[in-house]
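Training component of the fellowship. As part of building independent skills, the fellow (R.M.) carried out the full modelling exercise for a liganded target. The chosen ligand was zinc ion. The inputs are recorded below so that the supervisory panel can assess the work.
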Amino acid sequence: MGLWSGDEALNLEQPAVSRHTAPRRALAWAAIGRIRGHSGADADCRAGRDRLSADMALDPVALAQALIRRPSVTPADAGAMDVVQQALEELGFSCRRMRFGQIENLYARRGAAGPNLCFAGHTDVVPAGDEAAWARPPFAADIEAGVLQGRGAVDMKGAIAAFIAAASAADLAKGSLSLLITGDEEGAAEDGTVRVVEALRAEGERIDHCVVGEPTSTAELGDMIKIGRRGSLNAWITIDGAQGHVAYPHLAANPIPPLVRLLARLQARALDEGYPGFQPSNLEVTSIDVGNPATNVIPAQARARLNIRFNPAHTGADLAAWIGGECEAEQAGFSGEIGLVTRISGEAFLTEPGDFVEVCARAVREAVGRDPTLSTSGGTSDARFIRSLCPVIELGLVNATMHKVDEQVPVAHLQALTRVYGRLIDLYFERFSG
Ligand SMILES: [Zn+2]
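Fellow's submitted model of the complex:
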């Protein structure tokens, strides 16, 4: 708590600051008032909503700072969603908070007509780790030499701020713009986007296309757009044998040999040689545990864990069935018990290059003069849930410092990403409005 000062601290939903009695809503308005790019009173802001122009747009830098100052380490929200909601309400979005478990989620929409272009993002961040290792306090949002410092700067509060700033300047006469913002992407991702998508589908809410603001750029802003992701499956194997003396193996059942054979067979299979646009699938054994401190004891149990990253040549269910079959084969000659638990964290998906991908790539070219590579590399993201609603791509800041000490983003990148998103919104409605 020592990292915040002044009224920035007042909006935190933590008991330590409950001595401040001013209503939170009023404080949030005050915060947005500072974010606005002009100095009018709140009433003037609202009256001016219909004639917003680029020079009156929200400042993405001030909004990113306000978000970073809410230390929303999953599952904490720390007032971050309030900052997003107030900024969007100010722009005429109708906002719905969707709380699942202890997670804050938000779906906001402006406009009733189709097509509906959605931006998806997350306000939660990974822990700062050792705060003393940071050059600047991780939740202070200091700007030094034109670089904004802080946890979430690139992953991905900066991108949320850039999209809202772009939306503030957009002409939405031709369709709808929406935002799906979750507080549970970096954690278990069980009460976040997956639940919001379920709820929206049940209501019949139509989203036509979606941009996820994950930091996909590698060296330069806009140099990469993700158009798909590999799927991910985790497996836990537990082999229960019978403990005994190493000199009397016939009186025991050693669980280690069947585990070694099983893992060797699983690793020996080349899952595929790639899939158009994707790297080959790979299986990695991530842990083997026996926990046996003695040299003369056959242990009772051996456990292993593995992860498969797979391209669209497979489904999670097929891979789980294959591992199950190999476990059964090993079980056949073993007196103990082989147990298997599998969990699919996401299926592979691909948004085929076409009009939507071209609109996104063209927006990058026109806004920052760069030709983005279309990629399916990297880990999973919330796009794995959104793909069941509509085509989805990911486009955001440079990912060099994400999840690291001294996460940071040049102010110029925030401004450039705002231009990219702004151009994307314009081109999207030009192309997809009837
Ligand atoms: Zn992220």
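The panel noted the following from the submitted structure. The pocket of zinc ion is lined by residues 122, 155-156, 185, 214 (CB under 6 Å). The longest strand covers residues 231-240.
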